[in-house]
Write a structure and sequence with these properties.
By secondary structure, this protein is an all-beta fold. Helix content is 0%, strand content 61%. The strands form five sheets. Strands 10, 11, 14, 15, 16 and 17 form a six-stranded antiparallel sheet that branches. A five-stranded antiparallel sheet has the order 1-8-9-6-5, with no helix packed on it. It starts with a strand and ends with a strand. The relative contact order is 0.18.
Length: 150
């Protein structure tokens, strides 16, 4: 599971696993994997779920990217703004000492990332910040990172 910004006029893609390319066929934003064909999707940001053992993948279009955590009592996401020049999401957040938060998509816990700032992961726990302050936030989904700058 994870999120990607997919930009371009004609987006074709395949997944890669253990060095092998995996194509497939689409039914809307649900994919059956295994065929050698490139798959296609419209320009946008998507939260992906890939199930290799069952040869399926699904994409949920992301309409809202936000931060949620101890700084706001885990309610009302602080929404990040998309920057089309570098495909990042940006904003500002004030955090207390030992704050914890996650990146959440569409205001839904089914689509969230945690872990560490250097390696975001859908299966991981909360992102932790030890020092209080107001931080500029830069989320780069295609790199799997979030940068917090005081």
């Amino acid at each position: 599971k994870g999120a990607l910004v997919m930009k371009g006029e004609s987006i074709e893609f395949k997944f890669v696993h253990d060095g092998s390319w995996i194509g497939g066929t689409a039914d809307g934003q649900n994919y059956t994997l295994g065929a050698g064909d490139n798959m296609t999707i419209a320009d946008g940001t998507y939260f992906w779920s890939v199930d290799l053992p069952n040869s399926t993948a699904s994409a949920v279009e992301v309409t809202k990217v936000g931060l949620i955590g101890s700084f706001n009592s885990w309610s009302d996401d602080v929404e990040l703004t998309y920057n089309a020049e570098d495909y990042s999401y940006n904003g500002s957040v004030t955090l207390e000492d030992n704050a914890e938060f996650k990146v959440r998509f569409n205001g839904n816990w089914d689509y969230a990332l945690g872990g560490s700032a250097e390696l975001l992961d859908a299966q991981a726990g909360n992102i932790k910040v030890t020092e209080a302050g107001t931080y500029a936030v830069k989320l780069e989904l295609n790199k799997g990172t979030i940068t917090l700058t005081k």
